[in-house]
Every structure is written in C-alpha cells, then in structure tokens.
From TrEMBL:
This is LysE family translocator. It comes from the Bacteria. The chain crosses the membrane at residues 43-66, 78-94, 114-135, 142-166, 178-199. The keyword Membrane applies. It is found in: Cell membrane. Keywords: Cell membrane, Membrane, Transmembrane, Transmembrane helix. The lineage of its organism: Bacteria, Pseudomonadati, Pseudomonadota, Gammaproteobacteria, Oceanospirillales. It is a multi-pass membrane protein. Pfam families: LysE (PF01810). The keyword Cell membrane applies. Its main location: membrane. It comes from Halomonas dongshanensis.
Amino acid sequence: MTSLGWWLSVALFSISMSGTPGPNNVMLTASGALYGYRRTLPHIFGIMLGCFVLFLSIALGLGALFERYPLIQQGLKVVGAAYLLYLAWKIASAPPPDFAAREGARPLTAWQAAAFQFVNPKAWVMGIALVAGFLPHDGPLIVNAAVLALLMEGVAFFCISLWAGFGMAIGRLLTTPRAWRAFNVTMGLATAACVGFIVR
C-alpha cells in the first residue's frame, strides 16, 4: 500500500472517474451557478461522505450482497431513477437567483447529497472498480478499505470542486432571467439524461 505506484494509480483513477460528467457533477454545476461555491460546499462534502461510506461498504461485502440478491439492486435502481428525475425537475424549474431567495430555494444539503450516492449508478461503478482494482490484500481489511476510500475522496474533492467553480463562472455570464431559465432547463435535462445509466 505504501508504494508510490499504488498511490499514483489510485489518484489517477480518482481523477478520471470523479472529474468526468455524471449526476453529481451536473448537479454541482447547477448549484455553483445558482448559489456560488461556498453555499455548494455542503453538497460537495456530502458527496465525499456518501462515497466514502459506500466504498467502505462495498469493500466489506455490500457488493457481494447485491450479487446474491439482485432484487435489492433492482429496487435501488428504481429509487435512484425516481430521485434523479425529482432532482432534475427541481433544477429545471428553479427560478433565477434574484427570485430564488423569495421562493426559499436552497442548495442540496450534505445529508441529501450523501444519501444520493447509494442510488447513484456512477458511484457504484466507481466503488466496485476501485475495490476490485486497488484494494490491497495484505493487512487489515477495514484499514486498507478506509485508506483507499480516503485517498479516492481526497483527490475527488478537487475534481468535483472544479465543476462547482465552473458553474459559478457560468452564473456570472447569465445576466437575464431568460438566460437563467434556459440554463436551468439545460441542467435539468442533463440530470434527467443520467437516468439512462440506471435503467439500461
């Protein structure tokens, strides 16, 4: 586990997986545009917490449970698809920032973001590939799994922060309510499109 090659391999894997488009990054872009980076931080930390717990759970046997009882996996797919469509509608129907405060709009909370990871298909793919490809076999399983998940999420923080920052930069370019509505609808449709990864 202490070899430089192992650390670099996990870091590169984290960059390639967490830095590419997916449900989390689409929602972070929308949140960054609507609320700014600082107010999006709970969403970011929620993603990291949820993925850490998910990856740890997969390493400790949750993935094997799904292989044994496929109905559980199918149930999570249905819940994940429904929740993702709900989030897509919330994003698409969000008012421009000037009106959001009046409507009581707020970014996704840390707990909501953390819970979403358990029905996020990309998080599952990342976790299974991470554990299968990089979990060391020597030493205590729980320690190895925790170190692996922490390294993955430590690198992922910077990658997903870039998406929120990208959204914040876009938000500064949207100067009219019409432009904001078009952006929100686009982000909502992009989020809804991620359902295809679940139901296929």
